[in-house]
């Protein structure tokens, strides 16, 4: 429906720009219908994509909907055994990929591989009739495998009704002007990449694809394509800021009006510097999950401007929040016994709304009797309704029966002038069961001792929050969506002989 509406209102408007390739909304509609006919004929149950951003991605997304089969984007960064296992779980399937990605893999029976080039040739060669899409709003539209950090990846499912609820609740149809263009740099297997295609199509916005992100290329493409909108994960925005600072160049993207960011924790210093370096750009923090069809909370541009300009600590603090729920979503914070918590009280975050699927193929629905989904994130809501994240529930440090959220300690350490980045994790302790460990990245030419950092925390938080172990590193391990890999850091602390790269001499 979203694609048909866009194609009817703006048939000749460019939908996709990928290098020299361009395709109009009318062309995208025709390509999706043609590809869908081939998918139906194959008899497959899934249409998978194992590839980087390319025109094949949005065509496949809509083709799957027309064919009445789930669209399954797969993380091409996984290991060979992991990829083979996930591909086996979607057989029988048609899998769109590149020769370089599938060549090392043992493709299971029932999976028909078609290269990206062959798929595009098929989809663009001719156009079939206007056969309507099959199925119902309750059918599965998209299946996304979770990262599997604590076990076998789960297959999160999003139905058409969930995705359309998200689009209708957050995007105004046809709101984009003809000159509007969004730069899509997030990978296609993440919910942010999926929602970018769906929301941009409904708005009628041109989608410019970037295959592999680096700051210089991103800025160059933004200038050349007159980009007006973009979505970035925190690590991407941090690299853009670093590039501009290190090279001394200006961003020089006069058309750029809005940047949304999300997917991980954003450093306060990075967003403040980004606002300075890109003064004409509106910034929005978007918090969401795969299971919620993308964004459920927004910290809008007005809050960003107020936070930077204000001398009021309470207003400035909001830059560290993810804002307020979108109108179609409700948020609750609950304690360990399931009781509702008040303003400022930390607990587990629950969400409810039409866009919330909260469902896995193997486990079924995770919604409770009243439709609430446990996000597994912890946080609190302040008296003004702003939500502050404190980390995943699995990341909570349990010290002698006391729950400690890593986020509050990280925020304090980031306030130290010598600290550039930090991650706090649980460290095994004979007396307390668990205690606080911190991996710290120092700014260039800004020394700090372990004792100094411990005193810094002790002066601002309770003694139980003071890290008993601090190690230094040149950088923290992040995944491609900007989430710090705490399990990697826990392994480092778990081995007494472990040494982090770039650790200062004499550091613990």
Q: Name the CATH architecture of the domain at 396-494.
A: 2-Layer Sandwich
The helix content, as a percent range, equals: 25-40%
Order of strands across the widest beta sheet? 2-1-10-9-11-12-13-14-15
Tell me the name of the CATH homologous superfamily of the domain at 396-494: ANL, C-terminal domain
| Overall 3D form | globular
Estimate the strand proportion.
25-35%
How many strands, what sense, and barrel or not for the largest sheet?
A: 9 strands, mixed
**Number of beta-strand segments:** 26
Which residues sit in consecutive blocks of at least 5 with pLDDT less than 50?
Answer: 495-508
Fold-level CATH name of the domain at 396-494: GMP Synthetase, Chain A, domain 3
Structural class: alpha/beta
The whole-number mean of residue pLDDT values reads 91
Give the distance, in angstroms, between the N- and C-terminal Cα atoms. Answer: 58 Å
Number of helices: 16
Radius of gyration: 23 Å
Question: What is the class of the domain at 396-494 in the CATH system?
Answer: Alpha Beta
């Amino acid at each position: 429906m979203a694609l048909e509406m866009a194609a009817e209102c703006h048939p000749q408007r460019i939908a996709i720009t990928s290098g020299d390739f361009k395709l109009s909304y009318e062309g995208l509609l025709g390509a999706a219908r043609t590809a869908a006919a081939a998918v139906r004929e194959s008899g497959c149950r899934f249409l998978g994509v194992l590839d980087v951003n390319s025109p094949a991605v949005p065509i496949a997304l809509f083709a799957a909907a027309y064919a009445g089969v789930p669209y399954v984007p797969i993380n091409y960064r996984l290991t060979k055994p992991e990829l083979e296992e996930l591909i086996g779980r979607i057989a029988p399937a048609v899998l769109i990929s590149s020769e370089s990605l599938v060549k090392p893999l043992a493709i299971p029976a029932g999976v028909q591989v078609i290269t990206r080039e062959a798929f595009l040739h098929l989809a663009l060669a001719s156009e079939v009739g206007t056969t309507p899409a099959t199925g119902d709003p309750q059918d599965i539209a998209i299946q996304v495998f979770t990262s599997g950090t604590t076990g076998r990846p789960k297959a999160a499912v999003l139905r058409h009704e969930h995705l359309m609820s998200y689009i209708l609740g957050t995007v105004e149809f046809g709101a984009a002007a003809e000159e509007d263009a969004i730069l899509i740099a997030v990978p296609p297997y993440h919910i942010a990449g999926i929602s970018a295609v769906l929301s941009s199509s409904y708005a009628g916005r041109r989608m410019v694809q970037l295959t592999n992100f680096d700051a210089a290329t991103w800025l160059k493409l933004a200038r050349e394509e007159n980009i007006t909108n973009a979505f970035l994960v925190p690590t991407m925005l941090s690299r853009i800021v670093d590039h501009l600072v290190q090279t001394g160049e200006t961003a020089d993207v006069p058309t750029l009006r809005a940047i949304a960011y999300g997917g991980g924790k954003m450093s306060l210093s990075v967003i403040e510097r980004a606002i300075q370096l890109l003064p004409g750009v509106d910034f929005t923090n978007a918090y969401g999950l795969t299971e919620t069809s993308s964004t459920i909370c927004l910290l809008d541009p007005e809050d960003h401007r107020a936070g930077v300009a204000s001398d009021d600590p309470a207003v400035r603090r909001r830059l560290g929040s993810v804002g307020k729920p979108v109108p179609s979503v409700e948020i609750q914070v609950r304690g360990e016994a399931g009781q509702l918590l008040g303003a400022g009280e930390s607990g587990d975050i629950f969400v409810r709304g039409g866009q919330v699927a909260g469902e896995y193929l193997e486990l079924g629905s995770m919604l409770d009797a009243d439709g609430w989904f446990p996000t597994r994130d912890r946080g609190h809501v302040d008296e003004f309704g702003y939500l502050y994240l404190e980390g995943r529930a699995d990341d909570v440090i349990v010290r002698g029966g006391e729950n400690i959220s890593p986020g509050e300690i990280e925020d304090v350490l980031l306030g130290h002038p010598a600290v550039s980045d930090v991650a706090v994790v649980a460290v095994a302790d004979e007396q307390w069961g668990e205690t606080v460990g911190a991996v710290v990245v120092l700014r260039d030419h800004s020394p700090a001792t372990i004792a100094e950092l411990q005193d810094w925390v002790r002066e601002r938080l309770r003694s139980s929050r003071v890290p008993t172990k601090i190690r230094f590193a040149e950088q923290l391990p992040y995944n491609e969506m900007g989430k710090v890999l705490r399990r990697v850091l826990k392994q480092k602390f778990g081995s007494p002989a472990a040494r982090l790269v770039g650790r200062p001499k004499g550091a613990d």
